[in-house]
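Ticket #4471: structure export looks truncated?
Reporter: QA, pipeline team
Priority: medium

Steps to reproduce: submit the single chain below to the structure queue and open the exported record.
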Amino acid sequence: MFSRRKFSSLLIGLICLVALISTTPALVASQVETISILMPAPFADSTVKLVENFNTLYKNQIHLNVIRGPRQTESMSDLAISSLLLGDTPFDGLLMDITWLPKYARAGWLEGLDPYFDETDIADLASGAEKGNDFEGTLYRWPLVADMGLLFWRTDLMKTPPKTPSELVSISNQLQTQGKVPWGYVWQGRQYEGLSCVYLEMIDGFGGDWFDVNNQSLGLNEVPGVEAAQWLTDLIETGISPRAVTTFAEPEALRNFQSGESAFMRNWPYAWAELQKQDSPVRGKIGISTMVSLPGVEPASTLGSWGFTLLRGSNHKDAVIKAIKYLTSAEAQRVMFIEHGYTPTVKALYEDLELIQDYPHLALLSRALNNAVLRPETPIYAQISDVLQRSLSASLTGEEKPELSMNRADRSSEQILVAAGGTPS
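Actual output as written to the record:
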């Protein structure tokens, strides 16, 4: 829930965006169908050439305007929701984060995409990329890019990456004792959504489940849930991770790892391109792998993904679908991957031998995407994620024992679910 002042500022910004669109010079004739899609700033910037190409291809037929939203995911969601609450939105489509879908679909803001995408289209998606696009049996979202949690490791310090939590700790201890790195492992420990992603990978890696959507049951205070919280807390207490990791988001973890201060890092695929830049101290010394897990337990990578949705109030549905299909085509995704490092969702690109030769880490991205797991698919995800973050933070900073913090998180989450009409057990 956001404040009246925040809502007012978002609304003013939205009105300015609408005014900008409405006063755009008459570069399109009256018979041209003008459509608009709201995108977060990074995607609006990275798709400029693709949008220009689309408008050239459909010259005198369709003109696509991209509304450049905020950079931060939370701010982007606030802007989208504030405009949708008005009832008559000034845009036709929305590029949304994967965790928003249940909330937006339940609110009735989205148009189903089943008439526009069939089983063949879904079969063309890479394994893992098909997740998180439907809600209660209806397809509402089509993926533009995939994102998944990865374990980055130093190839100059070890021959192979760790597979289990204990191996990661053991290798870290050895390298720290030898004076090769000050820290073993850096990750996203700040109290924000990134911490929920880190925890999801570990509770799954310990054989548990944060939230079973089918049974509406929570597993935070069960053995794997407590063990995951304890392991993360112990990383800090034993010096494997710096205490400052509780202030780390993705950029801070990347800076530490890129400077050679740590042996391992949890981050997203974008970090690969940053680590391979000419001025990177660890250029050519990096490998990527899936997250660690207990023996016999499949490793998990949190699925982070942005995809296009069609808004129910749009009067230009067919034109918007043409734009979505163009921007998510194999050709467009090739450009997004090569020029901006975004992970593709189209299966064919992972099987492209020329692309694999130039970017051998593509095979590792494919494996991680195949192991991707969804965060709880519920309209009240933001609330239960906030509860988890607060409880974990209390454990990581030493305010509360992991077992107590996970008991509290489980109990508070259950109360939220019951209040929302769920029936957790």
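Status: closed, not a bug. The export was complete when the record was re-opened. Leaving a note from the reviewer for reference: Confidence is low (pLDDT under 50) at residues 17-29.
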